[in-house]
Design brief:
The chain is α+β, with helices and mostly antiparallel strands. The chain contains eleven helices and nine strands. It folds into three domains: about 5-115, Orthogonal Bundle (Butyryl-Coa Dehydrogenase, subunit A, domain 1), CATH 1.10.540; about 120-230, Butyryl-CoA Dehydrogenase, subunit A, domain 2; about 230-380, Butyryl-CoA Dehydrogenase, subunit A, domain 3 (Up-down Bundle), CATH 1.20.140.10. Helix 3 crosses helix 7.
Length: about 375
């Protein structure tokens, strides 16, 4: 496990790589919606795909505080890079925490190096934040399961060699959330990726629908080896996903601040740089303060997740607040840039298009508010109070 010095060094090295390698090419890659093959190759070499994989399986085994800071640095350069590792990391985390020994040995070493990339498939066309409404079914068949159904908005759905799939394994229960299982599906016959979905931002990585047509998987593909634990697995993975999205938002907000600061120190009006105008100073103060506050919530979420228990409230607060800050900061930075900020020549235009995706991802912010309030009242009723 990383100590504080190792954390700072790894985060610092990532930041240097972003400044040197990512920022100079991000605009062009994003503009042409180009998959960042070279950047991802270097991320593999740095060990980024194995951040949450234990050392015994070849991973870095970083703490979650280090994880979110690295994701923030990647996203400061280009938000897509923070998203590239999200589903992969969630899957690795779930396999390590909930998988059988055989599943860990089979998948984690290759996931640590990035040789095997993973996608997470939970969302459906009529079941987004309402996970219990999924219709994809895995029926028992000849020592395994036959999967039929479709998933929507799957990041890395074309390239992933492993799909962590949430499917219904018990259709007879009157409580739908109790009849779901998480299944580790290796790409093969019966799994089809649909046409790439065109998006406002978050370019450079594919988002596709996935269709499963009579796809057979062996019985040992069930995560943890026990059926109908999928809802718990989905909620656990979702908390790691919200930490990732919050971290990506933090990175975007930092990039918005960096761009606004640079511009404000260079641009002159009425004989002085606009950084000396009180109106600009007020805007900068709000951006900086809220971004620092988001970091505090991300630290709190990382600490709660590290305890091994549920961290729905902490992860929800971090994701909700950080993503709203990113949207606000990207717009504020654009306003500081004036007309230039609305052009594609300036980075802030890309930040403005990337930020809204995170308000929706890993459970909309409206869902997060419901989770936060329910957790708050439940803890208060249990005598935990507010902290």
């Amino acid at each position: 496990m990383f100590d504080i010095d190792m954390r700072n060094e790894f985060v610092g090295l990532t930041a240097q790589w972003v400044d040197r390698t990512v920022i100079p090419v991000a605009q062009e890659l994003e503009a042409h919606n180009t998959y960042p093959e070279t950047l991802i190759k270097e991320m593999k070499e740095m060990g980024i795909f194995g951040m949450l994989v234990p050392e015994q399986y070849g991973g870095l085994d970083v703490d979650l505080g280090t994880y979110w800071r690295v994701v923030s640095e990647l996203s400061r350069g280009w938000m897509t890079l923070g998203g590239v590792i999200n589903s992969h990391t969630i899957t690795a985390f779930l396999i390590n925490r909930c998988g059988t020994d055989e599943q860990k040995e089979k998948y984690l070493p290759r996931m640590a190096t990035g040789e095997l990339r993973a996608a997470l498939a939970m969302t459906e066309a009529e079941a987004g934040s309402d996970v219990a409404a999924i219709r994809t079914v895995a029926k028992p068949r000849d020592g395994g399961y036959l999967i039929n159904g479709s998933k929507m908005f799957i990041t890395s759905g074309e390239r992933a060699g492993l799909v962590c799939l949430l499917a219904r394994t018990d259709t007879s229960t009157d409580k739908p959330h109790r009849g779901m299982s998480m299944i580790l599906v290796e790409r093969g016959e019966g799994l089809h990726a649909g046409r790439k979905i065109e998006k406002l931002g978050y370019n450079g990585i594919e988002t596709v629908p996935l269709t499963f047509e009579d796809m057979f998987v062996p019985a040992d593909a069930i995560l943890g080896g026990v059926e109908n634990q999928g809802f718990y697995h989905a909620m656990t993975g979702g908390e790691i996903g919200r930490l990732n999205v919050g971290a990506r938002a933090h990175g975007v907000a930092r990039a918005a601040i960096d761009e606004a600061t640079k511009y404000a120190l260079e641009r002159k009006t009425f004989g002085v740089t606009i950084s000396e105008h009180q109106a600009i100073q007020m805007l900068m103060a709000e951006m900086v303060t809220k971004t620092h506050a988001a970091a505090g919530l991300l630290d709190q979420a990382a600490e709660a997740l590290s305890s091994g228990g549920r961290a729905d409230m902490e992860a929800g607060m971090a994701k909700y607040y950080a993503t709203e800050v990113a949207v606000e900061a990207s717009l504020t930075s654009m306003r500081i840039h004036g007309g230039y900020g609305y052009t594609k020549e300036f980075i802030v235009e890309r930040l403005f298009r990337d930020a809204p995706q995170m308000v929706i991802a890993e459970g909309t912010n409206e869902i997060q508010k419901m989770i936060i309030s329910k957790a708050h009242f439940a803890r208060a009723a249990a005598g935990g109070g507010h902290r």
